Amino acid sequence: MRRASAAVTTGLVLAGLAVTPASAASRPTGPQQPKRIVESLDRGLVAVPAEGGGTFLSWRLLGTEYGAGVAFNVYRGSRRLNSRPITASTTFTDRSRGSGAYTVRAVVRGRERGASAAAFTPGDIPLAAAPGYYVQHAWPGDLDGDGRYEIVVSRLATDLDKPNYLEAYTLAGRQLWRVDLGPASYTRGGGNAANDPPPAAISGYGDVAGYRNDDNVTVYDLDSDGRAEVVVKTANGTTFADGAVIRSDDPLDQFVSVVDGRTGVERERVPVAADLAADGPSGGQYGVGYLDGVHPSLITKQVVRAGAKRGDFRVLFAAWDFDGRDLTRRWTFVRGAVGTSFHQLRVVDVDQDGRDEIADGNYVVNSDGTFRYVVPGAVHGDRFHIGDLDPKRPGLEGYAIQQTEGGIFTAFPWYYYDASTGERLLTGSHPDVPQDATLWDVPRGTTADIDPTHPGYEFWAATAAPDLPGAGVWSTAGKRISTATPSVNFRIWWDGDTGSELLDNTYVEKWDWRKRTSSKIFEPSGVVSSWRNAVPFYGDILGDWREEYLAETSDHTALRVFTTNIATSTRLYTLAHDPAYRLGWTVRGYLQSTLTGFYLGFGGKAPRRPNIRTTAAADRAWQVIAEDNFVTDSGRWSAELQSGGTVTARDGVLDVDVPGGATVWLKQELAGPYEIEYTATPIAAGGPNDLVTDLNSFWNARDARSPDDIFATTRHGAFAEYDHLRTYYAGQGANLNTTTRFRRYVGEPGNRPLIYDYTSPLIEANVGVHVRIAVDGSRIRYYSDDRLVFDYTDPDPYRSGWFAFRTVASHFHIQDFTVWRPPTAA
């Protein structure tokens, strides 16, 4: 455990108080730690008008190549613009004349590599029509795997009586999809009545105490396949981009849905943890952390306010792993009725062991879901920050403010602390007067390096008066260096130095440490901020290591992207490859500044290369290779009917209603390894074909008469016609079909070799059965409702072919058909 200095200055309470012991987990360091799997980004080359004329260019240095001596050449068309490879920064100003697209090329060990994508000039992102809506939050993520960020936004209605929307856009302005959270995103009801948020509300709910700061959304590549997923809290009535709708018997049910970032289609859905259900629907925030040090995990924070509208917080953290198909809970941590939750969370490696912890203001949960510490004496506050704030101290530090409201008085206005142990290093003081909510309340505070004459970051809070003991700008050494304070919203890296600028409303300002005043250095017109004078997003999503921000146009019809055009001599890797910084984007909530895991400020040393790799994790991700949710006719199926009948796709169901034999083929040829899954329900509702016979499947099928194209031979649905197939077959019986069978057809009429024949499981009328067929080389497995029915190893396997549903004189509803490519390594 690190020790704080015992000396403090006037106006501060002594630090070094006793703390709850932190976990004594082992701490591998340096090369012993495994590398995190992160996004594979392109150069992010941007071209904008330069100050004084010409074009300013900026591009990424990747974290994986930092410190490896990579230089760059800049081209316009085929002409190189720089005389020598650029090594001092990743910017260039072109004042020459000519035409052609700008590109950059890396130079590695004297050899020039391929050209980057053409330069992008940021501008407006038109928003889909939604009168009366505004953008609350935005999350970046590489949704399609091209190395460029797309943006997911939450859009809320100003009058609170319309559904929340979640939408995705490219930075170039193309809309990808919309998810409509439905009536459950604005209609309340439940255990605490007015204290409950609507079950599907995202990004806050204005008139419910404690829930204005929710997000319940995050965007990240959770299965490390190169494409980001979107995770969102959903409820009854949520409609996805393909038209699929959640139908739940209980309107208060809440779910965690994983959405395909490319399409807006739901991939997976699980109920939220039920531990807090008695207190009604929960709010909260979502984020991402690397709990094993290598793979990303989803972190969900559920919050209810027990009892009255201003009641104590009850908090539940759950950690989840997503493998491309299944969302599996890793652990759950429940904190009882306490008044100490903040309206945010931070996911960061506070003890530097390579695995992330979860911080909720004044307390921290370990990567394994155990309690780590609580800061002594600290209670609820709205904002807190964790980063390397003092380059002279090892590890990370935190700064948090304390809120006095609702009759709860805090012991101090703010504190500066050791992020690993919770030890308070510096503590602000309240005025020496009787408790006064107006004087003692601190609604905001921030930290940034704004003064090069004092090592480390500075921090300050929004106090009621500048002469209060805790007011002013403080250094990490405990010195009040100014009674005047800058804006208290966000820190941003905008100009060419490594100190911080400040982002407030929609403008950037610079603190003059000599005059102790701020001045605006960039102020765009025609845009507005959102809740609490915050823009929907800011961060390093383009160009070099400095940050961009998004602001909504005044008429709420577009998002506008702003990036700096100021040259810099500082060469850093993209901040998106710093783990602490990148994970800060995954949480919105009560927006706070995003900080790096290394010291980035005046006089800082060059950081180490981040311990990351960008290759996809083949041992992690399942890939969808075919699917149909049957919302409408997709054209993916071909039916062979013996005696007529109907096969229709509508409203999430493939309805097979036939008086005779029917075979319904997937038109896509499949090659193993793969897994097929679907749900089938035999209908018995009095219809003429509601006979509940059997449910059959063919897979890896080929017709011996036309082995290269199963559709080149005509068949009419009679069972004997399929004797010409070379295929695997499984049939689950019902009624007169009293067994469940597995066969290996060999393409000979009258010869259908029987491998297995069991008396169970059989299908039942109006009861859905979940079928899963796993094909892996010579091994074939068939599951019914997760029960392994057949496990067959074929000495001469069929490795590819076509799949079909098969039934006779029956009526089935087929749902949620998916074919998965399994991980290549276990």
From TrEMBL:
Domain Rhamnogalacturonan I lyase beta-sheet, first and last residues per copy: 38-118
Keyword annotations of the record: Lyase, Signal
InterPro entries membership: DUF6250 (IPR046217), Ig-like_fold (IPR013783), Integrin_alpha_N (IPR028994), RGI_lyase (IPR041624), RGL11 (IPR034641), RGL11_C (IPR049366)
GO biological process assignments: carbohydrate metabolic process
Domain DUF6250: 656-817
Endpoints of the signal sequence: 1-24
Gene3D superfamilies linked to this entry: 2.60.120.200, Immunoglobulins
Entry annotated with the keyword Cytoplasm: no
Pfam families tied to this protein: DUF6250 (PF19763), RGI_lyase (PF18370), RGL11_C (PF21348)
GO MF, one annotated term: lyase activity
Domain Rhamnogalacturonan lyase family 11 C-terminal residue range list: 216-610
Record bears the keyword Kinase: no
PANTHER family: RHAMNOGALACTURONAN LYASE (EUROFUNG)
Protein known as: Rhamnogalacturonan endolyase
Lineage of origin: Bacteria, Bacillati, Actinomycetota, Actinomycetes, Micromonosporales
